[in-house]
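Give me the fold.
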Amino acid sequence: MHRLFKSVQLVVALASLALPIPCLCTLTSLAKNDPYPMFNSLDPQSFLYTRPCQDTEDPYCIHAENLKWSISCSPFGQNAYSGANKHGEKFLPARVCPNTEPCGSTMPVPITGNRVELGDLTGRINMIALLYGEKPENQDLPDSLKDAQDCLFSQDPEFQPTPFNGANNTQNDFLAQNDDTHFFNTSSDNFEISNNNAFIPNNFENLNNNAFVANNFEDANNNAIAQNFLFRKKPPLCQLPEASKQRLDDPSLIDPAERYASLTFPLKYHKRGVRLDFSSNINCGFGINVQAGIASISQLVKRIRLQTKVVPGDAKEINIENDLTCQADTLCDFQLPPDETGVTTFTGQVKHMLTGNLTQIADQLHVDIDDFNDTSVEELRVNAFWRHTFDINLDNDGPKATCMPYVMLSGSVSPGKKRCPNKLFSLPFGNDGHNAIGFSAGLNFDFINTIELSGEVGVTHFFSRTVDKLRIPNSIYQKTLFPFVADAKVSPGNNWHFAGKIASYHFLGNLSTYFQFVMIDHSHDSICLKNKNNMTKKNIDDEDGDSSETFKSEKIFVPKTLEKTTGWKSKLANVGFTYDISPAISLGFLWQAPLSQKNTYRSSTIMCSFNASF
C-alpha cells in the first residue's frame, strides 16, 4: 500500500511539474496555403510533459520544479511556387504529336512544362466557358463578352452542334471524365434558345425581314429596340463567317485537358510574419495556452513569355503569354473547331477576343487579376489541455519509461482580413473569418534518456458565415473565374488530422530535436445561395394552346461545381531543433516541408524561435 501511495504521489508530482511550452497543434487551418501553422520550434509535446528528475543537482530540473509560465516569439517565412491538383499530380502529362509545332512557331512544347501552377489548383480558366449558362436576374455579361458571344456563336436555334471532341464522342462521356454528370441534363431542353432571345428581341415577328431590312419599322411593336438591333455595330475586328460560328453552350469546345481557350497563371507565394505564444501551468495536470500572429502575404503573378504571333486575318499582335490555346493543336487529344475558308478563323477570334483580351474582360467584370499584397493579423487561439503520466519501471532496474495520455480542447477566431471574391489571387488570413473549435487526443511514451514516441488524432470544425457577392459558376464548365455573383452561406467542411512524432531530449549536450509527420484531410464545403430567386429561372410555356401555364425551372447558379473544388489533403513533415542556452531560455529552428498534397500549395516554412520560461 505504501508503495502504491508513493507511486500516486510521483504521478501527481510529474503532472503538476509539466512544462507548458506553447506548441499546441490541436487546431488545423482552413487555408490550404498554410494548413498546419506552427507557433514555435519546440517539441510539440513539450508543453505537456517534463521528464522525471533523476539528478536533483541538475539546474534544468530545479528550474522545472518552479515553472509556471512560458512565452515564445517566432518570426517565420513561408514560400511556395507550385502545387498539386485534386488528383495529387504535380505535373500534367505532355503527349506531343510528332512533327507539329504550336501555332507554326518554334517554341518548345508544352509552354509551361505542364507543372501544376498555384493559380490553376482549382482548374485553368476557360474563356469560352464564361459565355455559357443562364444569366441571373439583374446581372448581365460585360460588353467585351457580349461582343465575343455575338462574334463566335450562332444564335440560330436550328444550328447543328459539331461532333464532340476526343476519344469519347458523347456529352455524357465528357462529363463523366470531369465528374459532373449529375449536374447536366442531356435532354434537348438544355439547348433551347427560344425565338433567338439571346440576340433578336421577341417583338421582331412582324418584320418581313427582321435581320436585314430596316424599312418595315412601322410593323414592329417597338421601333426603338428594332433600330438598336438592326444598326448595332458588329464586334470590333470580328470578320468571322457565319459558317465558322459554333453553337452556344456546345460542350465540344471545352478542352478536357484545359488548354484550348485556357489560361495558366504561375504564382510566386510568400508569407512573412511573427507568431506569439503564451502558456500557463495551472495545476493538477491542467494548463492553458494563447496563440496569435501577424503576417504579410504576397502572391505575384508570373508571366511566362511575351511572344509576337501572326493571327490569320489580323496584323501581328502581342499574345498573352499565359495562353495555352496553341498546345491544344499539338497534344493530339483535342480536335480544334473546324475552320471554313474565310478571312478570320474561329480559333483566331478566340485568341483575339477572349484569351488575348483578358485584361479588359477582367476589368469589366470588376475582377482584380493583379498581384496580391496585404498584411493582417492571423488567428487568435485559446487552448486548454489536461494530461496525466504513468510511470513504467521507474523504481526498478531495467529500461525506464513514462506513458502519458492527453486531451486538448481549442477555440479560434480569425479577426484578420477575409479573402475578397473580386481579387482573383487573394488569400485569406487565418480561417477567412470562420470561427473554429477543435479537439484532439494522444498518447506519449518517453523512454528515459533515449527517445520519445507519440501519436495523436484530432478534428477541427469551422462555423459557417455569409459571404456577400461570392463568385459562383453559372455553368459546369467554368473554373476559377466566374462572371456572376450571389450572396451565399458558406459552411466549411471539417479538418481531420493525424500526427506521429519521434524525438530525443538533450541527445547532444543541450541540443534536442524531433521529427513529426502530419496528415490533414479537409472535407468539401457546403455553399447555399441566400436568395432563392438566384437558384432557378422560371420560363412560362404554353402547351397545345392550353391557357394553363406550365412552369419549367432551369438552374442558373451551380454551386455544386464550386463545392467540388474545396476539398483538399496535405501531408507534411516538421523537423525542429532546440538549444537550451540556460534553464530558462532556449533558441530553436523549425523546418516544415511538404510531402504530399491534393489541391493545396506545396508550402515550405522556416521558423526561428526565442523561448523563455519562468
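The radius of gyration is 31 Å.
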